[in-house]
Amino acid sequence: MNSLIVTPVLLPLLVAAVLLGFWRHRRIQGWLGVFGMFGLVFAAMLLLASVHEQGIVVMHMGGWRAPFGIALVADLFSAIMVLLAALVGLMVSIYSLATIDNQRESFGYYPLLHFLQMGVCGAFLTGDMFNLYVCFEIMLMSSFVLLCLGSERGQIEGAIKYVTLNLISSAIFLAGVGILYGITGTLNMADLAVKLPAVEDQTLVTLLAMIFLVTFGIKAAIFPLFFWLPASYHTPRPAVSAIFAGLLTKVGVYALIRVFTLLFTHDFGTTHMIILVLAGLTMLTGVLGAAAQNNFRRILAFHIISQIGYMIMGLGLMAALSWSTSDATYAAVRLALAGSIFYIVHHIIVKTNLFLVSGVVEQLQGTGELQQLGGFYRHWPFLSILFLIPAMSLGGVPPLSGFWSKLILIKSGLELQYYWIVALALLVGLLTLYSMTKIWAEVFWADEPEGREFVSDGTPTHRIASGRVTMFLPIICLATTTVAIGLYAQPVFDIALRAADQLLDANQYVIAVDPQPVGNSSLEPLANVLEHNQAVVNERGGLR
Amino acid sequence: MEAILAVVIGCLYASGLYLMMRRDLVKLIIGLALLSQAANLLIFTSAGLRSLRAPLIPRGETQPVGDFADPLPQALILTAIVISFGVIAFTLALFHRAYQTIGTDDLDEMKATDT
Q1: Alpha carbon of A37 to those of A41, A143, A379, A435, A474: distances in Å?
Q2: Is A28 or A534 the better-scoring residue by pLDDT?
Q3: Which of A112, A437, A459, B95 has its CA 20 to 30 A from that of B10?
Q4: Distance between CA A342 and CA A3 in Å, rounded?
Q5: In this structure, are residues A217 and A296 in contact, taking their beta carbons and an 8 Å threshold?
Q6: How far apart, in whole angstroms, are the C-alpha atoms of residue A301 and residue A309?
Q7: pLDDT above 60 (res A527)
Q8: Rounded to an integer, what distance in angstroms lies between the CA atom of residue A199 and that of residue A1?
C-alpha cells in the first residue's frame, strides 16, 4: 500500500480546505479539525506499521521515476516523526477547543493548524531537496500567521524576529539547493547520495554541508543561531506555543539528521565534529539561559534549545567513524543515533505537555511570571502532579522517558570516548532539574502571592470551567504516554535502533528509491524521460 | 558571463545584508527581498549558463535533437519566486501592523520580548 504514504500530506490539506468552507462556524471548525487530526494519527499509525513490516516505503509522484519525479520516502525515522507530529496535532487541537478565543478562531486558526501539519508531514516524508524547501515554506507560512494571530504587541515583536531569521534561513537553503544542483545535476536525495561522493572537489561538498548546517541550524535553533526562539515562543497562545515547541524545531533536527546521515558522510572528522561541538554549546547556553529566566514559558523555551543539543549530540557522535570503523565503534554510533531518535520521541511528547500545563496555569492566574504565581499545589493538586511527570522526565529522573533517552546517549558517548560531551550532558541534565524545581517551587509549592486570587471569570478564562475536559484530556494523555514510554522503554528502543540501522545504511535508502542511473551530461536526463514517456505512450497504443 | 553574474550576486547579497543590519523596518524588508533575488540568480548561474536551444521535440522525433538547455533551474526559480512573493507580501503586512501597534519603525525599540 504505497499510496498510504501521501495520506499524511493530503489529509491535512483536504481537512483544511473543508474547514475553510465552514469559515463562519467556529464550533464546527474546531470539532472537524479534531476529527481530521484523529484521521491523521490513524494514517500515521498505519504508515508506521507498514514501514515496520516491509522496510522503506517509496512512492514516485505521478509515476515519474526518481530522479526525475519527486519521490516520497518513508523510512522508520520519518514514520516515527509523522506519528509524533500527528499525535501532537491531535492533542493541541483538542486543547485549542477550550483555550483559543473567538477572535482567533474566526480568523482561521483551525485551518492554519492543518496547513502547518501538512508542511511538517511533507518535510518528514519528502525525498527531494527542493520539495523539502517547499514543505519548509508551507510550514513557515502557517507558523507565521499562527504566531501573529491576535496582534498583541509582544506577538508582533516576536514575529518580526522569527520571520526575519527564518526567511534568512530559507534564502540560504535556496542558495544551497542551487549550488547542489549546479555540482551534481540532481536534487533527489537518493540520487544525491550516489553522486555526491563522485564529485571531484570534496571541499566543495564540505562547504555545501556547512551551508545546510547553517540553514537547518537556524530552523532547529542550535547555538549560535537560536535567538529567534526565546524571543517569540512565549508570545502566542499556549496552544500555539505547544505545537511550535513540539514540532517546528524538530523538523530542523530531522532535516539535519537526514542530510548528515545520507548526503554528507564524506568527512566525519570535520562536519560531524563541528556538530558535536555545537551540540555541547547548544545544551549549555540553553540551560544557562533558562536559569536566568523568570517567566514560565520563557524558561520552557530556553529548555527547548538545550534539548536540541542532546538530539544532535547523537548525530555528532558519528564523528567517531572518522578514526575507527571497527565493529565496536559502529555499534556505539548506532546506539548514539538510536539515542537521538529516542530523545526526539521523548522530547516532543514532554515539551508539548509542559507548554500545555503552562497554558492552564496562565489561564488560572492570568500571568506567566513566576513571582506572581503560586498556590497551585494547595488548590490544584492534580494539575501539580500532571506538571511533575513531564518536568521530572525532562530532567531525566528514572523511570520516565527522559532517563532512558539520556542513558542511551551517555552510554554511547562513553563507549566512543568523548568524555567531555558526556560530562556536559550530565551537567546540563542537573541544571535542567534545577530549572524544573524552580518552577515547581515558585508556581506549585509556594503560597499564592498577596492579593492574587485565582481568576474565576474574565474574558479568556471563563471557559475553563466548561472546557476543563478538553484542557486536561490532552495533558493526561501525554503524561500517560511519557510514563508508558518510561516503563516499557524496550519496544520504543527497538524501533529506534532499527531506524538508526536504516539511517546508517544509506544503501537501503538508495535501493528503495532506486534512482535511474543517468550520465554526467545534464542533457541526458531529459532525453531519458522523454524516451520513457514515449515508451509508455506506445504501450498504451498511442496518444488518445 | 559567469564572472559578471557572480559579482552581481555578491553585490546583491552584500547590499541585502547591509540593509538588514540597519535599524529600519522598511530597509529590513528590502534587504530580505534582495536576499531571495540573489538566491534565485545563484540557482540560475550555478546550473550553468549556455545559450542553447529550447528543449522542444521536433515533430516525428522521440527526444530533443542536439544540445538543448536544461529547463529545471528555471522551474525551480519560478517556484522560488512565487513563494518569496507570498512571503514578502505577508512580511510587508506584518511590518505595517507592527508600525501601527508599536508606533515606531526602529528595530532597536522592539525589545519587549527579549529579556
Answers
A1: 6, 17, 33, 33, 13
A2: A28
A3: B95
A4: 27
A5: no
A6: 13
A7: no
A8: 36
Chain A CB contacts of B74 below 8 Å: none
Dist CA A277 CA A420 (whole Å) = 10
- Which triple of cell numbers denotes residue A424? 556536559
Count of pairs with CB atoms under 8 A, one residue in A, one in B: 126
Q: How many distinct helices (H) and strands (E) make up chain A?
A: 23, 2
Residue B18: per-residue pLDDT? 94
Which pairs with CB-CB distance under 8 Å and at least 24 residues apart come from B90-97? B90/A141, B90/A144, B90/A145, B90/A163, B91/A163, B91/A167, B91/B29, B91/B32, B92/B29, B94/A144, B94/A148, B94/A156, B94/A159, B94/A160, B94/A163, B95/A160, B95/B25, B95/B26, B95/B28, B95/B29, B97/A148, B97/A151, B97/A156
CB contact under 8 A, A235 and B64: no
Q: Which residue has the cell 531571495?
A: B36
A180 Cβ neighbours under 8 A, 6+ residues apart? A129, A187, A192, A208
- In the predicted structure, residue A60 carries a pLDDT above the cut 60: yes
With b meaning 16 or more CB within 10 Å and e meaning fewer, what string describes A362-394?
bbbbbebebeebbbbbeebeebbebbbbbbbbb
CA dihedral A442, A443, A449, A452 (to 10 degrees): 160
Alpha carbons B67 and A76: distance in angstroms, whole number: 42
- Tell me which chain A residues have a C-beta less than 8 angstroms from the C-beta of B101: 151, 153, 156
- For the stretch A479-517, pLDDT in tens is 999 999 999 989 999 999 999 999 988 888 888 887 776
Residue pLDDT, tens place only, A382-414: 888 889 999 999 988 888 888 999 999 999 999
Nearest to A213 by CA among A154, A272, A128: A272
Dihedral pair phi/psi, residue A396, rounded to 5°: 85, 35
The 3-class secondary structure across A462-495, one letter per residue, is HHHCCCHHHHHHHHHHHHHHHHHHHHCHHHHHHH
Rounded to whole angstroms, the Cα distance separating A466 from A213 reads 46
Q: What is the DSSP letter of A145?
A: H
pLDDT in tens, B51-65: 777 778 888 877 777
Q: What is the pLDDT of residues A425-460, one digit of tens each?
A: 999 999 999 999 988 888 888 887 776 666 544 444
CA distance B22 to B106: 9
Query: Beta partners for A27?
Result: none
What number is the ipTM of this complex?
Answer: 0.93
Mutation target among A164, A233, A524, A536 for the B interface, most CBs of B within 10 A:
A164
Chain B residue with CA closest to A236: the answer is: B113
Q: Give residue-wise pLDDT tens across range A33-49.
A: 999 999 999 999 999 99
Using a CB-CB cut-off of 8 Å, the residues of chain B touching A157 are: 98, 102, 110-113
